[in-house]
Write a structure and sequence with these properties.
Elements lengths: L10 H12 L11 H12 L10 E6 L20 H6 L11 E6 L2 E3 L8 E2 L9 E5 L6 E3 L2 E4 L2 E6 L2 E3 L6 E4 L2 E6 L2 E3 L12 E12 L2 E5 L4 E12 L2 E5 L2 E6 L2 E7 L2 E5 L2 E6 L1 E3 L12 E7 L2 E5 L2 E6 L1 E7 L2 E5 L6 E4 L1 E4 L10 H8 L15 E3 L2 E6 L2 E3 L11 E3 L21 E6 L2 E3 L24 H7 L1 E2 L6 E3 L4 E4 L53
Parallel strand pairs: 1-2, 2-5, 3-6, 4-7, 5-8, 6-9, 7-10, 8-11, 9-12, 10-13, 11-13, 12-14, 13-15, 14-16, 15-17, 15-18, 16-19, 17-20, 18-22, 19-23, 20-24, 21-28, 22-25, 23-26, 24-27, 25-30, 26-31, 27-32, 30-33, 31-34, 34-35
Antiparallel strand pairs: 28-29, 36-37
Length: 537
């Protein structure tokens, strides 16, 4: 099946223009072009988010001594609840003259003291809405927050304790920042908290230097999120994945995090989504331009990293330790696409609309029918370090790469067939030590990386990577110091870093970044051209 590129003047091109134009950041001139908006948002993702607040009105909240009839303008005349402070921000109006800074004094704000639903507050770059612990991290605890259609909302130095449902949920948000905060759910085995932090159908999301833990599903769930920076967080203790970005998520940088103690896996680009929850034009691949770099992933039962239906995905300079005890260390398999619910459910009509726009999916009821398989393309796995202890359970193979698929579910979906999950899949300069030297690579006649049409082969993977060839020692694996004890002992020398080719990207999706190099390590130190694998130089 031939995948047609977008044509100027076609319905999806017009929809793309309308979608991106409506999404222009309030802080940018209204005349900014779609291309410059895309470039500006990409640039934001490349570095920690910069707050550029100017004129601001301050509202004080004192959980223990405040009064909701007070002015809130002074520390000594504080409000009692965040709910009242939120009510004093104009609803549905773009903040043109000043923003709002809500400073919360030490204490706890329970469910009756936080807004039941935080919606329709429209901050801007110069006039954002900032909610902050006045005396620093660890001094303020909030109940769960549920946010809808809010722009430029910055949550700083807070502790959010989930009280059921999601701990922090943001839908249709634009410029959400969570910084130096803790979001805590519950023991994953309690099943009380599903997704801990969930962000969906949103743009420009930044989660930085925060601690997210305790979920029966995922600690961090991004669905249809474009432009996101996930930096230097601790993401852990979930029964499913620690984190994923799926549902047409695009232009996501996952950089310098510690990801650990999860069941199904560490981090995956893509996964599976109900077709109606996706946002045009990102309605083909599960994930586009996701860069997973400088992370430490450890103690996961499933794969430490994976790609499930992604285009232009980079996994580079990550350190993985004690991962894949169930089966394999890395996975490159199908994304799955369904149309959730039953006929008559709200939103199911969008499945047909998305198909008409050239998306990949189905209108079939999700009642046991085969889901649509979403392919992978332009996936690069470069200079990662993976080490499993010989005295701990390890998986029975190194990789899982799905073989081509042309079975039930693909008819009428728009997906190219046979559907491949190894197209342009590159392994380069990785060092892996896991299990005995005889541990299978995991590639055979029925898998990917074999047969006609495959761009990777077992012999090339073994030649261009060091897999169970020599011992690998870490400084203190038991104590959590996962830096190489002797980097020179596992050097793979200089490599030619490939570029991501966006020419095959479908349906008018704006291209992401082409370069794949990772010039700085997780501590910010510059790497040389012959840097060792893993998160540290």
């Amino acid at each position: 099946m031939h995948v047609r590129p977008i044509r100027r003047g076609s319905p999806i091109a017009a929809l793309l223009l309308a979608t991106l134009t409506l999404a222009l950041s309030p802080g940018l001139p209204a005349t900014a072009s779609v291309a410059s908006e895309h470039t500006a948002r990409l640039a934001e993702v490349e570095r920690p988010f910069r707050i550029r607040a100017q004129e601001m009105v301050t509202l004080w909240v004192d959980p223990s001594g405040g009064d909701d009839s007070a002015s809130g303008s002074e520390r000594t005349d504080a409000l009692a609840t965040l709910a009242e402070a939120w009510r004093r921000i104009p609803r549905g109006e773009r903040l043109a003259d000043h923003g709002y800074r809500i400073l919360i004094l030490p204490g706890r704000l329970g469910e009756d003291a936080v807004p039941g639903y935080m919606e329709d507050r429209l901050g801007t770059t110069e006039h954002p809405i900032i909610i902050r612990a006045a005396e620093g991290a660890g001094t303020v605890t909030l109940a769960s927050l549920n946010i809808f259609s809010v722009r430029h909302l910055y949550l700083i130095d807070l502790r959010i304790e989930a009280t059921g449902g999601d701990g922090l949920h943001c839908e249709q948000c634009d410029h959400l920042l969570l910084r130096r905060s803790v979001v805590r759910g519950d023991d994953p085995e309690s099943w009380r908290i599903g997704d801990l932090v969930k962000v969906n159908q949103s743009r420009s999301v930044f989660i930085e230097r925060s601690d997210l833990s305790g979920a029966s599903d995922n600690a961090l769930d991004l669905v249809a999120v474009q432009y996101a920076g996930i930096r230097r967080n601790r993401i852990h203790d979930a029964m499913d994945w620690c984190a994923y970005a799926k549902g047409g998520s695009a232009y996501v940088r996952v950089d310098g995090n510690e990801i650990f103690d999860c069941g199904t896996g560490g981090f995956t680009a893509g996964q599976g989504t109900g077709f109606q929850w996706m946002v045009p034009p990102w309605i083909t691949y599960e994930a586009v331009d996701v860069r997973v770099v400088n992370n430490v992933v450890h103690d996961t039962e499933g794969a430490g990293l994976g790609v499930n239906g992604g285009y232009g995905i980079l996994l580079a300079h990550n350190t993985l330790v004690r991962v894949g005890s169930r089966s394999h260390l890395l996975e490159f398999v199908a994304g799955l696409r369904s149309c959730d619910g039953v006929p008559g459910d709200a939103g199911r009509g969008r499945c047909a609309e998305h198909l008409d726009l050239g998306g990949w999916g189905t209108t079939r009821v999700d009642d046991g029918n085969e889901p649509v398989r979403i392919p992978n393309r332009q996936v690069f796995v470069i200079r990662n370090l993976i080490v499993n202890r010989t005295d701990r359970p390890v998986g029975d193979q190194i990789l899982t790469v799905a073989g081509p698929y042309d079975g039930p579910g693909q008819d009428g979906s728009g997906v190219p067939t046979p559907t491949r999950f190894d197209r342009d899949l590159v392994f380069l300069g990785n060092v892996i030590r896991s299990g005995p030297e005889t541990t299978p690579l995991g590639i055979g006649e029925e898998t990917g990386c074999s047969g006609a049409g495959s761009s990777c082969r077992p012999e090339s993977i073994l030649a261009e990577n060091l897999i169970n060839e020599r011992p690998v020692s870490l400084r203190d694996m038991a104590g959590g110091d996962f830096r190489l004890a002797d980097p020179a002992a596992v050097t793979v020398g200089e490599i030619a870093w490939p570029l991501i080719d966006w020419s095959g990207l479908t349906e008018g999706i704006p291209p992401g970044r082409s370069r794949t190099t990772v010039p700085r390590d997780r501590e910010g130190l510059r790497r040389g051209s012959d840097a060792p694998p893993g998160a540290w130089r």
